[in-house]
TrEMBL record:
CDD domains: AAT_like (cd00609). InterPro entries: Aminotransferase_I/II_large, Ethylene_sulfur-biosynth, NHTrfase_class1_PyrdxlP-BS, PyrdxlP-dep_Trfase, PyrdxlP-dep_Trfase_major, PyrdxlP-dep_Trfase_small. Its EC number is 4.4.1.14. It comes from the Eukaryota. Pfam families: Aminotran_1_2. Belongs to the class-I pyridoxal-phosphate-dependent aminotransferase family. The keyword Lyase applies. Its cofactor is pyridoxal 5'-phosphate. It is an enzyme of class 4 (lyase). This is 1-aminocyclopropane-1-carboxylate synthase. Residues 50-433 form the Aminotransferase class I/classII large domain. Transmembrane segments: none annotated. One of its GO terms (biological process) is fruit ripening.
């Protein structure tokens, strides 16, 4: 199905309103559309599509709910038995509530093992990380200038960084040869590619931990980035919204820790390093719309604060979360338990995929695995990747994200999320994929104990098999896209 731009006779609407550069036509978003038409539900629609394309952290909601039950005053907008509702309901300026900003920067430090500290006067509150990243683009670059971005990267960046700002993205091409790590050669090539396109490079943006890889940047990579922006006199944006999801070695290192170790904290270079954070992933609260920019450059803080008036965090949200994040006993327990649960869930997905003869990139963070299905492609092309993706969405009834939507340079990689569903739903999803592989690719999967023999040995409960058969008996025809 082709998406076309509607005519705009006599310029009735603006070019921004009628342009087709939002990125909504990406397979990343199209998979969501298919899921929304036919969502899986254990009771009411067991043959539906299971959503594995959504990076939500639902594994520790019970911990937050327990805290709310034990601390009813903040959610009721009370303090010391009296109501603060009227105070919160009235106008608040865009600087944010001091109590919340203090609690937030302390939480950010705790996630990083208290190896670094953050100054609440250098933080700007935004309506989520989407707003934070776009605001930084407005602060750092002019339309037509460029930001370098390692591939594969979060598909939403095409919207967040480019759509309204006019900033161009130039990819830093990373490959599976070294686990998609950033190299000096790739950085220099991206910089040269930008120059060839007559684009002025204003900075590099990285996600650490990476979405979609689920890996943390190594110290050599971080050192390389610091040296690169020093040499080129450009900015570095470190999107660290998954910082609290790092659940196993080699551990998480923030760019702020690198600056501290190099004794660069109070230098001109440090003014060109900016951190993006939010509570969407670590606390699992994307609906609360809480994001932040942290910068050592007072001019960036000032400009971003003014811009934040277009996307404020509500006073009620700030009041509630200030109380929650100020409870140090709760935050310490939450971080440790959330990471433990994420590690266990990631292990479950990896083991299930291994039994289907499918491997993943070794990862230690995030809410997803970067899954290698190159051996299931009919050819080493992105057309073959899309053909396989359509089968998985329409036949297997799983919405996963193809690597091409993340601008991966190698066909056959997919992002598969594991933290937005129950353990039982994850088991069903893996069973559906296992049976699909066994029935259609028996000649290409490994014939080892970890592959083919384990495929034969795995059998789920009769109910699971029955549900899976239902999903294949659906008379719903796939659309052409």
């Amino acid at each position: 199905k082709q998406t076309t731009t509607r005519p705009n006779p006599m310029g009735i609407l603006s070019r921004k309103a009628t342009c087709n550069t939002h990125g909504q036509d990406s397979s990343y978003f199209l998979g969501w559309e298919e899921y929304e038409k036919n969502p899986y539900d254990e009771a009411t629609n067991p043959a539906g599509i299971i959503q594995m394309g959504l990076a939500e952290n639902q594994l520790s909601f019970d911990l937050i709910e327990q805290w709310l039950a034990a601390n009813p005053d903040p959610a009721s907008f009370k303090r010391d038995g009296g109501s603060v509702f009227r105070d919160l309901a009235l106008f608040q300026d865009y600087h944010g509530l001091p109590a919340f900003k203090k609690a937030l920067v302390e939480f950010m430090s705790e996630i990083r093992g208290n190896k670094v500290t953050f100054d609440q006067n250098k933080i700007v509150l935004t309506a989520g990380a989407t707003s934070a990243n776009e605001t930084l683009m407005f602060c750092l670059a002019e339309p037509g200038e460029a930001i370098l971005l390692p591939t594969p990267y979060y598909p939403g960046f095409d919207r967040d960084l480019k759509w309204r700002t006019g900033v161009e993205i130039v990819p830093i091409q990373c490959t599976s040869a070294n686990g998609f790590q950033i190299t000096e050669t790739a950085l220099e090539q991206a910089y040269l590619d930008a120059k060839t396109r007559n684009l002025k490079v204003k900075g590099v943006l990285v996600t650490n931990p990476s979405n979609p890889l689920g890996t943390t940047l190594t110290r050599p990579e971080l050192n390389l980035l610091v040296n690169f922006i020093s040499d080129k006199q450009i900015h570095l944006i470190s999107d660290e919204i998954y910082a609290g999801t790092a659940f196993s070695s080699p551990g998480y290192v923030s760019i702020m820790e690198v600056l501290k170790d190099k004794k660069l904290e109070h230098t001109e270079l440090a003014d060109r390093v900016h951190v993006v954070y939010s509570l969407s992933k670590d606390l699992g609260l994307p609906g609360f719309r809480v994001g932040a920019i942290y910068s050592n450059d007072d001019r960036v803080v000032s400009a971003a604060t003014k811009m934040s008036s277009f996307g404020l965090v509500s006073s009620q949200t700030q009041y509630l979360l200030a109380a929650l994040l100020s409870d140090k006993k709760f935050t310490r327990n939450y971080i440790a338990e959330s990471q433990r649960r994420l590690k266990q869930r990631q292990r479950s997905l990896r083991k299930g995929l291994e039994k289907a003869g499918i491997s993943c990139l070794k990862s230690n963070a995030g809410l997803f695995c970067w899954v290698d299905m190159r051996h299931l492609l009919e050819a080493n092309t992105f057309e073959a990747e899309m053909k396989l993706w359509k089968k998985i969405v329409y036949e297997v009834k799983l919405n996963i994200s193809p690597g091409s939507s993340c601008h991966c340079v190698e066909p056959g990689w997919f992002r598969v999320c594991f933290a937005n569903m129950s353990e039982e739903t994850l088991e069903l999803a893996v069973e559906r994929l296992r049976m699909f592989v066994e029935e259609n690719y028996n000649d290409v999967i490994p014939r080892s104990r970890s592959g083919h023999e384990m495929l034969k040995g795995l059998r789920k409960k009769n109910l699971t098999k029955w549900v899976f058969r239902l999903s294949y008996s659906s008379d719903r025809e796939p659309e052409e896209r």
